[in-house]
Design goal:
Among the domains are: 70 residues, no CATH class; 31 residues, no CATH class. The chain is elongated. It is built from 7 helices and no strands. The protein has 201 residues and is mostly helical. One of its GO terms (biological process) is transcription initiation at RNA polymerase II promoter. It is found in: Nucleus.
């Protein structure tokens, strides 16, 4: 590029200036990308400026609960019908009656197997014992410095783990869509070949 413009040698000040300009340009782009990515994943549930007009997730949960109750009601009706058929003393040669009795027997076997599996799981959990609590109580970290001693360390916890949790920076993940949006807002990049190639990916 330099030879094309008859530039054979660059002064160190020019190199430093270009390096500083490139660094500032990249810093500005990264700051914009961070804001765009945070805005994409941010929620406004706790903001007083927004009022929830409809909660689709709660409506779906309500419909799922209705479906579950309806299925449970039908299963109970079928179970009662099968139990009545199993206790019936009617003609044993009736194919439909025999089918219902066989289905009732399979249902009872399935319920017995489920009960045995549940008892086995409870026995295994009892043998393992209760879960051990972590040395560092997460409520102390969430509430600030409550429960810390004079050295700023919670009793029963290591200073390294506490410092790591308090000083761990929040990671913002930037995706290709954030980069494309940022490039579309930049005057120097919104008509560039780089943006066109990014849109093709």
């Amino acid at each position: 590029t330099g030879k094309r413009h008859d530039i054979m040698e660059l002064n160190s000040d020019v190199v430093n200036l270009i390096s500083h300009a490139t660094q500032e340009r990249l810093r500005g782009l990264l700051e914009k990308l961070t804001v765009i990515a945070q805005h994409r994943v941010s929620t406004h549930k706790g903001s007083d400026r927004y009022i929830v007009s409809s909660d689709t997730r709660a409506q779906l949960r309500f419909l799922e609960k209705l479906d579950h109750l309806e299925k449970q009601r039908k299963d109970e009706e079928e179970r009662e019908m099968l139990l009545r058929a199993a206790k019936s003393r009617s003609n044993k040669e009736d194919p439909e009656q025999l089918r219902l009795k066989q289905k009732a027997k399979e249902m009872q076997q399935l319920e017995l197997a489920q009960m045995q599996q549940k008892e086995a799981n409870l026995t295994a959990l009892a043998a393992i014992g209760p879960r051990k609590k972590r040395p560092l109580d997460s409520s102390n970290v969430g509430s600030g410095l409550e429960g810390l001693n004079g050295n700023g360390i919670a009793p029963g916890s290591s200073g390294f783990s506490l410092t790591k949790q308090l000083l761990c920076p929040r990671i913002t993940r930037v995706c290709l869509r954030d980069l494309i949006f940022c490039m579309e807002q930049e005057r120097e990049m919104k008509h560039s070949l780089t943006l066109y190639r990014a849109l093709l990916k």
